[in-house]
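Batch 3, record 17
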Amino acid sequence: MKTFEYHKPSSLDDAAKLLAQADAVALAGGMTLLPVMKQRLNSPSVVVDLAALEDLRGIRENESKGVVLGAMTTHAEVAGDALVREKLPALAELAAGIGDAQVRNRGTVGGSLANNDPAADYPAALLALNGSVHTNKREIAADDFFAGLFATALEEGEIIRHLHFPIPEKAGYKKFPQPASLYALVGVFAAKTNGGVRVAVTGAGSEGVFRVPELEEALGKDFSPESVPEKLSDGVEEKLLNDIHGSPQYRAALITALLRSP
Amino acid sequence: MRVQMTVNGKAVSGEVAPETLLAQFLRENLRLTGTHIGCDTSQCGACVVLCGGKSVKSCTMLAAQAEGADITTIEGMESPGGELHPLQEAFRQNHGLQCGFCTPGMVMSAADLLRQNPSPSEEEIRHWLEGNICRCTGYHNIVKAVQAVAAAK
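Prediction for the assembled complex:
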């Protein structure tokens, strides 16, 4: 790892100022950032550790009865939290299935969303649940947040403070993990929200997480595994990744198989 | 930069470069070489230590991130009188190791599991140890060792 300047600011304003410098990165849990720095895929000159920002912590219910997660909430905290388990069991289950125990003890929801790895789990949850990202500058709806592989709507110096998840009527997440990395080869989050059914797929898209209108339509009529079509249209297959772990055809088959499995 | 933390109950400090990993600080500054670096890519779990009681991969954490933290390494598991920790004893009794390289990480990871779940099922143990790789034992005796400690509690 190349050397860098390390800062651990105790206020959000100070953190934003530090991050506005050229070549500065935010450090949350470090489960992605530190490995890519070791590989020199990223060699920032300034690292801003967000661990001292109390504003980025905690899990609570807001006025509209949705669940709010501080950006620095770890996967283990999400998985084990009583409020999340009661209100959003699908999200607790998703968090419990990320990586391994040690990754879940350090990795954070805000870090995962800001990184927008095409095989990460949280992007599917945020998009399917029609959640929103609250930063030090503004609120960004899930539909406007993800901008392709490892890219988001976040600007330089913009820091995620918390994530808001409205409570769906029903929701579920299923993933088929790539056995070595434990990342999603395909992960599907389906939610029946008060704005209709939303289905988001991670792991499979060549541009990262995406919604599948034809599945939303089918599940909108009847939110049950039986109403999932056996095969997706060719239009969906064209958007899927093709790599050593799976062909677009295989990934497309997994999307429907995961939704149809009880 | 200067870092300070508590390691195995003792206050320690040291001068490190910002990019120093916690694993390096433990091994090179403190000479606590029981914490192993296997893959250095957060896959193998040989470097697992407890940070505030929770298991973490010390190769994927900066020493600076452990500022003020309470760290326990494998060297801190035995009793002050030098008696092996029940997990260490169970690994010995159940032949839960061959070359021993992964053992410190296995023991630290298992300690975190038993803290949260004193009587895990075999499946829960296997699932929990997903982040610890052993190239010798095939895991059966490691799982048996953890089960033995759980049963004795």
